[in-house]
Amino acid sequence: MVRRYADSGIDAAAIDRIVDAAVRAPSAGFSQGQRFIVVTEKSLRAALAEAAGEGEYVSRGFSPWISVAPVLIVVCIDKQAYVDRYAERDKAGTGGWDVPYWWVDAGASLMAILYAAVDEGLAAGFLGAHAFEGLHPVLDIPEDIEVVGVVTLGHAAPDQSSARVKRGRLPRDEVVRRERW
Ligand SMILES: Cc1cc2nc3c(=O)[nH]c(=O)nc-3n(C[C@H](O)[C@H](O)[C@H](O)COP(=O)(O)O)c2cc1C
Fold it and tell me: Whose C-alpha lies nearest to ligand 1, atom 21?
C-alpha cells in the first residue's frame, strides 16, 4: 500500500486494463455483484478527500492522499445480484450464506486491482469505507449499493508509514499449517 503519489496522471489505457482485471475477478455463483466507480475529476477527488477527513490526516503530519491520487476506484457491491442469482433454478436453496460472498468477491476484485496496478508500474493504496462520511451522495451511489472502500492509484512518491506501531510480517510457520491444523 502506497499513500503518496507524484503529481502526474495515469494513461487511460492503463486504467482500463486495471478495471478489466477487477471485473475478471471471480464471484460466488458467478453473480458478478462487484461494482466499480472510476473517479478522475479533480473536484470529485477533492470531495472524496473531504469525506475522508483528509484535512485532519494532513494535520497529523501526513501528505494529502486521496486528493492527490490521480485515479480513485470506488469498490462497491450489489448484494441484490447474489439474492437474485441464488434464487435461480440451479442455485435454489443454496443461498443460506454462512459467508457473505459479496464481501469475499469485492476482496478478490480489490486484490486484482492491486496486482494490475503493480503490473502497470503504478502504486496503489486502499482506504476502507469506514473512513468516509457521506460518500454515497458525493457520487450519486444508490442506497442499496454498499461501498467497500476506495483504491487510490498513481505513480509512487516516497511514502511514509501510517502505522503507529511497526508491525512485521508474521513468519510463514505461524500462519501456514501443513496437512492438519
Ligand atoms: C480490507 C482492507 C482495509 C484497509 N483499510 C485501510 C484503511 O482504511 N486505511 C489505510 O491506510 N490502509 C488500509 N488498508 C491497508 C493496510 O493497512 C495494508 O494493506 C497493511 O498495512 C499491509 O501493508 P502492505 O499492503 O503495504 O503490505 C486496508 C487493507 C485492507 C486489505
Answer: 1
Q: Whose CA is nearest to atom 24 of ligand 1?
A: 1
Q: In ligand 1, which atom is closest to the CA atom of 128?
A: 8
The Cα 66–Cα 46 span in angstroms is 8
From the number of C-beta atoms within 10 Å of its C-beta (0-12, 13-18, 19+), residue 157 rates as middle
User: Which domains are present in the chain?
Assistant: 12-159 (3.40.109.10)
Amino acid at residue number 13: A
The reply to whether ligand 1 has any atom less than 6 angstroms from the CB of 127 is: yes
Ligand 1 centroid to Cα of residue 126, in Å, is 6
List pLDDT tens digits, range 23-36: 999 999 999 999 99
Q: What confidence tens digit (pLDDT) does each residue in 119-163 have?
A: 999 999 999 999 999 999 999 999 999 999 999 999 999 987 766
